[in-house]
Amino acid sequence: GAGVSQSPSNKVTEKGKDVELRCDPISGHTALYWYRQSLGQGLEFLIYFQGNSAPDKSGLPSDRFSAERTGGSVSTLTIQRTQQEDSAVYLCASNPGTASYNEQFFGPGTRLTVL
Amino acid sequence: AQSVSQHNHHVILSEAASLELGCNYSYGGTVNLFWYVQYPGQHLQLLLKYFSGDPLVKGIKGFEAEFIKSKFSFNLRKPSVQWSDTAEYFCAVHGSSNTGKLIFGQGTTLQVKP
Q1: By CB count within 10 A, which of A87, A107, B36, B52 is most buried?
Q2: Nearest-CA residue of chain B relative to A109?
Q3: Which of B5, B10, B32, B44 to mutate to test the interface with A (most CBs of A within 10 A)?
Q4: Residue burial B68-79, b: 16+ Cβ < 10 Å; e: rest
């Protein structure tokens, strides 16, 4: 079956512009996660969606970052007024969400470059 | 705050050498522990995980890891590495009080010389 897909694979934008990153999770997976991987850093948690529950937004670094998940499937991460420090690889993951030990399945990521 | 520390940032080994990558975490409750691997040009994928029972867990491609609760450690081992093990390795922790997020270490880049 299809894995987690993300688009675009690469995005170059100018400082101050808004960007939208898309994630299509594995079909049937109720949990969806966004992480950010900056150069030389580990993965940093951003936001987590589980079914119809309120999302865990505790990892969003500023109010310029927001995410939504429509219909319990596709998710969009939006970064407003991008800054150079937002340059990173943004990774999406999903899992069945029914147990804490479930493996998270990762997408290929979107590499964002802010000039 | 919860954290994960990977001691080695860059490891270079020759083929057939033994590997041990260190991982320590900071969390006082029940944990689930994971090692993920990212081969060049590929997605992150699960190498192995611990959630209960035998603290020595075996994963894919001959890797294993041992959970030592008293040391808050989950070190990754392989007796004999191959060139194809060249990749970046991430240790991650899920704490019982978390909503589902993983806390990742900074990653270790392993380079295996043929």
Answers
A1: B36
A2: B43
A3: B44
A4: eeeebbbbbebe
